[in-house]
Amino acid sequence: MPPLDLASGDLLAREERADQALSRLDGITLMLPDPERFLYRSVRKEALLSSQIEGTQSSLADLLLYELNEAPGVPVGDMDRSAQVWVGGRTPATAHFVPPPPDALAALLGALENYLHLPSEQAPP
Predict the structure, then answer these.
(1) Within the chain, what is the greatest distance between any pair of CA atoms?
(2) Does residue 47 form part of some domain?
(3) Rounded Cα distance, 97 and 90, in Å
(4) 7 inside domain
(5) Which residues face 91 on adjacent strands?
(6) Contact 75/57 with Cβ under 8 angstroms?
(7) Tens digit of pLDDT for each residue in 36-73?
């Protein structure tokens, strides 16, 4: 593998653009009254969006109120981990994926394990 030449060509131009973008970002943070608060809110917002992928039904306001102990805590629907879950969408009907219900999971995993242990001549194509 040839050595990486960072001192010339397209990589140098990209590095300069990246440095300029970081400098602008650093300058903007100096104008914020409280950069830590801005970072805190950004991280919370990203966490909320990530959890919504998993079907969590909560808003940023719910999260912030919960952290301030002004809300009753975790929503009742989130406390029962044996309840049906889904990925994406606001309900199982609009979800991208709905796994098997919890009470069927043990039998289905057993069937999958049996299938995986089938001799190759017995396994369907």
Answers:
(1) 69
(2) yes
(3) 12
(4) no
(5) none
(6) yes
(7) 888 888 888 888 888 777 767 777 777 777 777 754 44
